[in-house]
Amino acid sequence: MPTLAAIDIGSNAIRLLIATVHGDRTIVPVENIREAVRLGQDVFTTGTIAEETIDKAAEAFARFRTLMETHGVRWKKAVATSATREALNRELFIDRIEQAGGVEVSVISGEEEARLIHLAVSSKVQLKNKRAMLIDIGGGSVEITLAADGQILSTESYRMGTVRLLQVLEEKKHGEKQFTQLVREYVDATQKRLKKELGKEKIDLCIGTGGLGSPLLAYLAAAGIGKIGVVDFDRVDYSNLQRQIIHRTSSVGKYKTQSAKEAMLDINPHIQVETYDIALTSENALELFKD
Fold first, then answer.
1. Nearest Cα to 230, choosing from 256, 206, 211?
2. Do 174 and 206 have their domain in common?
3. In this predicted model, what pLDDT tens digit does every residue of 22-31 receive, in sequence order?
4. Do 255 and 157 share a structural domain?
5. Are residues 198 and 261 in the same domain?
6. How far lies 62's CA from each of 13, 37, 168, 219, in Å?
């Protein structure tokens, strides 16, 4: 059984997946490692990756190299996305991590990210005879793909990932109202593009991938998706506010579903939001998604 390795150099973390490929082409993960090397925290404020962050990334790649050698990895691929694309010192950064990890690094475009996301989703979800919207939320960018009958119609990459927005919030010391307006301005651009692409066509299926569902709700509301279901059993805590940007300090203690609904209706009062204050399980998923 051949063993493969894939490394994703994101804006908020660097991930390694090692997997074996069986005769029926089934992929079975054997290692799934996440290293919290926050490239975007540097790039989206200063334009460069700090020396300390480069050292952390190189250390992570050295550990990855050991794991790949231990598992006898035959093929390996490393790709870098938004933060590395924009870093003014990206050549230095890539040189350091390639030496540490013994693997060549490719810096891919937002459009290539979207293509790979579509490829991955279509291998798991039936997109035949459906008009689908795929939204991948990263730390530095959001990739939106429209597909019909399994074929890509259009892709767009937006510079409004979760880490980037949070860095803007911290750097400019926005208050809650100003930050809400900032997010609304970002998603307005998405809304206009989607309306242009879709016209009067209906989206049959919307699939979100990436780090967090929270910003996805804001994008869906702005895009005018008519009926949106929100499932979560938890309540908003102060520790959620750093990354789950749909929630505000005034929402602490509320069910996350209710907090999200209020924020979504503030973005677009013409949508319908249904909330379910329960955990999503394999037993109740079909019932929740039937409509």
1. 256
2. yes
3. 888 788 999 9
4. yes
5. yes
6. 15, 14, 32, 37
